[in-house]
């Protein structure tokens, strides 16, 4: 069965809407509720580097607000992002509307940030997840489509920005400046339906514990957080243990805001790459040396400041040092030894001037330097200097026009210099308070990472060789869309986008030898991805809400005139939420059509590489959320969340990458207590 | 909203869920595998002289005590790795296909041929309790992963 469940669920939801329309419309009319009762004013900071109503921007965007994070596992951003329309997330790889395929974990086309500071490694150019405690995240902004006009390299597919909880977000705690959050999760992967995939007699467990202590007043604040996590995994030789600490200091002075944060995170894990075969999908190839462990560490010190230079101009300062390292425990003399250390320095000075109520100018300078000291990549240095400017004019007739661009100049030791100009034009037209149209055209680019240029490593049967002649890949992104809200027949929001992306000189792994075991990264293809995306959110009753999204992609390799490798064409998500009092429940369904084409040469290295099916995943959540702002059992402020998560509840088996079975059913209990 | 519509929805949802297949599935396996890793104590330093290792294999004996490697293998009462294991390494993997599972492997060992065709000795033993042979019940269609340590300077008690 391929699409049966997908269409059945859609039919079910549409039926449900049909049944409910009359009765609920009557109630809504009777109450004469404002639409704001159901759909708040969601603010986004990432689209244009300043706080705006999400309906008034020119790009497609999605915001995950704090309330939606409450039931989630700590340290599990991947699971949260999976429900976002048009996103595919696995093993710290993010693909927005088909931007990424299979890249061996090197070179992301999505820029991941924390308060505007990149969380991208200096050597591999990949996103680093799970470094921050969820309790300190106020929202996650996801801006789809090329964002290089403001953010430069890596934002070719889109931008994901984790927004921290600011002092001003702590109004609830004005009388309770001290806060302790304790969180503990424990769960296990259930047994597989096929005995040969049960690699151990005991169930594999996954657990995490997190403590966050914070003290905040209206003028200053401090947070310290620590986490330990252990995952035995649903596969043999795929276990990991992680420990991390995070600290942040806040200072508000005369309307200016300063944040200083630091983090360190270390993981020890097995070196799983792909399965032995479909018949033994939960064990690695039998000739693998299972004593090999990978140790990876990340450390960051960052600063953000917002200073009002005058009544209409403010300066945003961002600076960070991001250290990443990894090594395996082979001896340096052995062929498969890998290690790398990198330090990425980032400075961004951004001014925003509001000349009058209609005209806003955003401008800035950015410098990023990646220093790499690596056995695998050598001693490397990459510098990117950039300047950007964007004008926004708000016409009185409801039309907002954005026009801007960014110039990036890149130098890399032992490689060619590159420069890129990334312009952007965006339009947003407000028909009325609840109807907005938008259009955008912009250019994106991505400079090759150090890893893609200079990798010289052996990796479980693959040899990766260097290619210093790589040049940046680029894209043009066009989209038109609209956002509409209704109160009748039921409170509902519809957001639709039609988009087309044209990619030039895509950097992809290429097999270079007759045995198909030697890989280099090269600018090998041009591609186009057309598509559309629709998302519906609505309230069937005051307690029951739903959301559905559909994404269609037509990813084509325009050089070969065939479908682009490692991409699905259809995606859908569907969720139903029932909240009553302190009780919360959610059913989420995700669908992705079968990946139509992979690199056939992988078949020689990975047994049963062609085994793949569409994805049908159902996640369940049941929880209790108790919040007492006045007093509690102990006479102090408290909140408590107890949640039971069931991921992949149907235990549906599919591959998320070649030769990789996706996570099987997991049942976990999460308890969060805040004092 | 009328309650019956909730029930109708839930019924349809469950019908849809139950109608779904399970996605990928492996071929039904009747053979079983005893896989694993051999770890050599003290790495390279402990290896015997190259000319004293004529052959090195993993053998899973059904019989205990086995009469001899040669006799047990010839009589079909033991499984052995098809090729000699690599020498002068820190560790190496092995895989034994067990065609007649369910079966009981009473003695699983790494054996070294040090002379003629009958000259074999045990250099490493699959054990749960140190120096004591562990029994492995091999079920049909199951894959087992074992660890065997080999210390050429401290050989296990010989069963032959």
Topology:
The complex is a heterodimer of chains A (675) and B (160).
Chain A: H1 4-31, E1 43-44, E2 52-53, E3 61-65, H2 66-69, H3 77-81, E4 87-90, E5 93-96, E6 110-114, E7 117-118, E8 137-144, H4 148-151, E9 158-164, E10 178-189, E11 204-216, E12 220-231, E13 240-253, E14 256-270, E15 293-310, E16 313-328, E17 339-354, E18 359-374, E19 378-394, E20 399-412, E21 418-432, E22 435-446, H5 450-454, E23 457-459, E24 462-464, E25 473-486, E26 492-511, E27 518-539, E28 544-557, E29 562-563, E30 570-580, E31 583-592, E32 615-628, E33 638-647, E34 655-657, E35 660-661, E36 666-674
Parallel strand pairs in A: 6-9, 24-27
Antiparallel strand pairs in A: 1-2, 3-8, 4-5, 6-7, 8-9, 10-11, 10-36, 11-12, 12-13, 13-14, 14-15, 15-16, 16-17, 17-18, 18-19, 19-20, 20-21, 21-22, 22-25, 23-24, 25-26, 26-27, 27-28, 28-29, 28-30, 30-31, 31-32, 32-33, 33-36, 34-35
Chain B: H1 3-18, E1 32-40, E2 55-61, H2 69-74, E3 78-80, E4 91-98, E5 103-105, E6 107-113, E7 120-125, E8 136-138, E9 143-150
Parallel strand pairs in B: 1-9
Antiparallel strand pairs in B: 1-4, 2-3, 2-6, 5-8, 6-7, 7-9
Commentary on this structure:
The complex is a heterodimer of chains A (675) and B (160). Chain A is mainly β and 675 residues long. Chain A is globular. The model of chain A is unreliable at 15-26 (pLDDT under 50). With 160 residues, chain B is of the alpha+beta class. Chain B has helices at 3-18, 69-74, and strands at 32-40, 55-61, 78-80, 91-98, 103-105, 107-113, 120-125, 136-138, 143-150. In chain B, the strands form two sheets. Chain B has a seven-stranded mixed sheet with strand order 3-2-6-7-9-1-4. The longest helix of chain B is centred in the N-terminal third of the chain and has 16 residues, at 3-18. Chain B is elongated. Classes of the chains: A mainly beta (675), B alpha+beta (160). The A-B interface holds A 1, 4-5, 8-9, 12, 15-16, 19-20, 23-24, 193-197, 199, 236, 278-281, 283, 286-291, 540-541, 587, 611-613, 616, 618, 650-655, 661 and B 1-2, 5, 8-9, 12-13, 15-17, 19-27, 29, 33, 35, 37, 39, 90-91, 93-95, 141-143, 145.
């Amino acid at each position: 069965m391929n699409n049966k469940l997908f269409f059945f669920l859609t039919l079910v939801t549409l039926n449900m809407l049909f049944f409910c329309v009359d009765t609920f419309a009557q109630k809504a009319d009777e109450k004469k509720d404002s639409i704001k009762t159901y759909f708040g004013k969601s603010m986004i900071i990432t689209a244009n580097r300043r706080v705006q109503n999400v309906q008034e921007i020119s790009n497609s965007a999605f915001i995950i607000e704090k309330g939606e994070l409450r039931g989630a596992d700590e340290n599990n951003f991947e699971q949260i992002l999976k429900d976002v329309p048009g996103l595919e997330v696995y093993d710290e790889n993010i693909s927005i509307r088909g931007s990424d395929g299979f890249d061996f974990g090197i070179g992301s086309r999505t820029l991941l940030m924390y308060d505007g500071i990149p969380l991208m490694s200096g050597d591999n150019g990949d996103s680093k997840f799970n470094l921050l405690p969820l309790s300190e995240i106020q929202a996650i902004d996801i801006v789809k489509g090329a964002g290089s006009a403001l953010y430069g390299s890596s934002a070719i597919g889109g931008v994901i920005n984790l927004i921290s909880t600011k002092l001003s977000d702590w109004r609830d705690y004005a009388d309770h400046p001290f806060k302790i959050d304790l969180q503990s999760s424990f769960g296990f992967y259930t047994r597989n339906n096929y005995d040969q995939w049960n690699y151990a007699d005991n169930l594999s467990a996954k657990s995490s514990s997190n403590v966050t202590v914070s003290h905040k007043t209206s003028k200053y604040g401090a947070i310290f957080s620590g986490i330990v996590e252990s995952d035995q995994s649903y596969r043999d030789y795929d276990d990991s243990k992680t420990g991390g600490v995070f600290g942040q200091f806040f200072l508000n002075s005369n309307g200016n805001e300063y944040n200083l944060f630091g983090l360190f995170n270390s993981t020890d894990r097995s070196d799983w790459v792909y399965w032995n075969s479909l018949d033994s999908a939960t064990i690695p190839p039998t000739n693998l040396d299972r004593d090999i462990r990978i140790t990876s560490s990340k450390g960051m010190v960052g600063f953000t400041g917002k200073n009002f230079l005058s009544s209409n101009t403010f300066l945003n300062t961002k600076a960070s040092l991001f250290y990443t390292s990894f090594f395996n425990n082979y001896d340096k003399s052995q062929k498969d030894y890998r290690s790398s250390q990198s330090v990425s320095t980032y400075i961004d000075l951004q001014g925003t001037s509001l000349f009058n109520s209609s005209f806003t100018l955003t401008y800035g300078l950015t410098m990023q330097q990646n220093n790499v000291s690596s056995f695998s990549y050598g001693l490397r240095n990459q510098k990117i200097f950039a300047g950007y400017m964007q004008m926004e004019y708000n016409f009185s007739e409801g039309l907002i026009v954005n026009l801007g661009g960014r110039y990036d100049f890149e130098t890399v030791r032992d490689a060619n210099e590159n420069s890129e100009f990334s312009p952007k034009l965006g339009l947003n037209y407000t028909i009325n308070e609840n109807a907005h149209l938008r259009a955008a055209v912009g250019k994106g680019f991505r400079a090759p990472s150090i890893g893609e240029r200079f990798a010289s490593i052996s990796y479980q049967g693959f040899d990766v060789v260097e290619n210093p002649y790589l040049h940046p890949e680029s894209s043009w992104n066009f989209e038109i869309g609209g956002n509409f809200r209704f109160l009748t027949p039921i409170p509902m929001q519809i957001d639709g986008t039609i988009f087309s992306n044209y990619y030039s000189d895509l950097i992809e792994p290429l097999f270079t030898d007759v045995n198909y075991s030697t890989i280099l990264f090269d600018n090998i293809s041009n591609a186009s991805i057309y598509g559309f995306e629709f998302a519906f959110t609505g309230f069937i009753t005051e307690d029951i809400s739903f959301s559905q999204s559909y994404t269609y992609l037509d990813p084509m390799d325009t050089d070969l005139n065939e479908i682009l490798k490692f991409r699905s064409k259809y995606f859908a998500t569907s969720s139903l939420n029932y909240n009553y009092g302190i009780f919360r429940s959610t059913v989420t369904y995700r669908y992705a059509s079968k990946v139509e084409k992979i690199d056939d040469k992988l078949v020689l290295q990975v047994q049963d590489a062609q085994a793949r099916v569409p994805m049908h995943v159902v996640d369940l959540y049941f929880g209790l959320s108790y919040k007492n702002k006045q007093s509690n059992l102990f006479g102090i402020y408290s909140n408590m969340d107890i949640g039971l998560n069931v991921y992949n509840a149907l235990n549906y088996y599919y591959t998320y990458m070649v030769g990789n079975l996706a996570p099987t059913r997991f049942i976990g209990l999460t308890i969060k207590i805040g004092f | 909203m009328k309650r019956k519509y909730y029930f109708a929805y839930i019924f349809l949802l469950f019908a849809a869920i139950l109608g779904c297949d399970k996605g990928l599935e492996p071929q039904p396996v009747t053979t079983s595998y005893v896989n694993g890793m051999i770890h050599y104590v003290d790495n390279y330093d402990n290896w015997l002289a190259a000319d004293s290792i004529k052959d090195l294999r993993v053998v899973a004996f059904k019989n205990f005590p086995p009469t001899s490697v040669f006799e047990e293998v010839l009589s079909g009462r033991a499984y052995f790795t098809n090729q000699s294991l690599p020498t002068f390494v820190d560790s190496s993997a092995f895989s034994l296909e067990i065609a007649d599972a369910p079966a009981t492997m009473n003695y699983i060992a790494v054996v070294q041929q040090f002379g003629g065709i009958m000259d074999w000795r045990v250099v490493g033993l699959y054990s749960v309790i140190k120096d004591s042979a562990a029994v492995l019940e091999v079920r049909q269609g199951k894959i087992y992963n074992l660890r065997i340590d080999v210390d050429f300077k401290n050989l296990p008690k010989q069963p032959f």
